Amino acid sequence: MPISFPLSIRTEKISGGKDKNIYYPQVFKMKNVQLEQNINQKIVHQTQLLVNELVGGDPSSVVEIIGSYEIKNNQREVLSLSLSNYTYHYHAAHGMTIIKSLTFDLNEGKLCTLKDLFKPGSNYAKRLTDLIEKQIKQRDIELLNPLTEIKPNQDFYIADKALVIYFQLYEITPYVFGFPMFPISVYDLQDIIDENGPLGRMAENN
User: Fold this and answer.
1) CA 103 to CA 83: how far, in whole Å?
2) 111 CB burial (10 A radius; 0-12, 13-18, 19+)
3) What does each C-alpha distance from 187 to 54, 161, 196, 203 come to in angstroms?
4) Does the first or last residue of the chain, that is N or C, have fewer Cβ atoms within 10 Å of its Cβ?
């Protein structure tokens, strides 16, 4: 594997007052300036979508809004990150949080969908669903409804040698459970992952 280094990342901030702060990452000092701009634009766009979804049509009722991020993977030409936004509206029973993730294949210069991680024609959705159902039983997770096969636009991120599939609040579990997250080892998927893609690079033993 050719030598690759982590991307340089800085934190930017949008502030609307004492309890209204959005923090989000931006990459810099990339050799490929166009790719750098593309990555940063997509991060800003997703950050704005989270704000729009939670603020809704009544920004005057927002008491608190906090945006933050976590870098889940920054190695082997794969950048995977999560953006979270917590918003509390006046008189609401409780605040609401949404987490969305972005995974970039720097070799290909693109934002990855879940499908992009697997070989064409592989039944990745069923495989992932089966592995998630196994974890649900092992961890005794209470579901609101029986789990159906995961969607092509299912939320995910990559964290070292694991693909993490996750669900939003209320999506499959009661609110008190938080965000159900299911880490799946790349080695449990090795026969269906794209060897030249992000998960293929994570699976290499070097």
Assistant:
1) 11
2) middle
3) 37, 8, 15, 7
4) C
Beta-carbon contacts of 129 under 8 Å, excluding residues fewer than 6 positions away, are 147, 148, 149, 150
CA angle, 113 then 101 then 37, to 5°: 80
Amino acid letter for position 7? L
Task: With 0.90 as the threshold, say if the pTM is over it.
Answer: yes
Q: How far apart, in whole angstroms, are the C-alpha atoms of residue 186 and residue 66? A: 33
> Which one, of 46, 28, 38, 37, lies nearest residue 84 by Cα?
46
Is-contact 95 103, C-beta < 8 A?
A: no
Residue-wise pLDDT for 38-78, tens only, equals 999 999 999 999 999 998 877 889 999 999 999 999 999 99
Amino acid letter, residue 35: L
